[in-house]
Design goal:
By secondary structure, this protein is α+β, with helices and mostly antiparallel strands. The protein has 5 helices and 5 strands. The strands form 2 sheets. It has a 3-stranded antiparallel sheet.
């Protein structure tokens, strides 16, 4: 429903910034627990209690294919690789140092194993929009 409402209110020249974490990420970013977002909800809830991080895991991450299905009605412009290649231009150098081993690793991971990359940054636009 949310995505259809974004499509409805977006002008033909409009753009929607879309950033999402991947369900298949190694470390869940909110609670810093390995593989938390991968587990089924009851197991995730138990893991949260066991780790002393809360009673329930409320997050609902999607995999890359799930995210792609979510935005299927939009034209997607992927900025993730652009940001990785030039973090200074996109004010991301604090996360990915230009020329660092981390940057080279992230670029390779995104290029060859995109489906396990921790997150994505996309611009959404209406199909056929200029």
């Amino acid at each position: 429903i949310l995505m259809s409402e974004i499509m409805r209110v977006m002008s033909s020249a409009g753009r929607c910034y879309f950033a999402a974490g991947n369900r298949l990420q190694l470390i869940e970013p909110h609670y810093k627990l390995p593989l938390l977002s991968v587990f089924p909800k009851p197991v995730g809830d138990f893991y949260m209690r066991l780790a002393g991080k809360g009673d329930e895991y409320y997050e609902k991450h999607l995999s890359l294919s799930g995210l792609q299905k979510l935005v299927k009605d939009f034209e997607v412009v992927d900025y993730t690789d652009r940001i990785l290649a030039n973090p200074e231009k996109y004010a991301a150098a604090y996360m990915i140092g230009p020329g660092s081993l981390k940057q080279r690793f992230a670029i390779s991971l995104y290029r060859y194993l995109k489906f396990v990359f921790p997150g994505y940054i996309w611009l959404l636009k209406k199909p056929g929009a200029r």
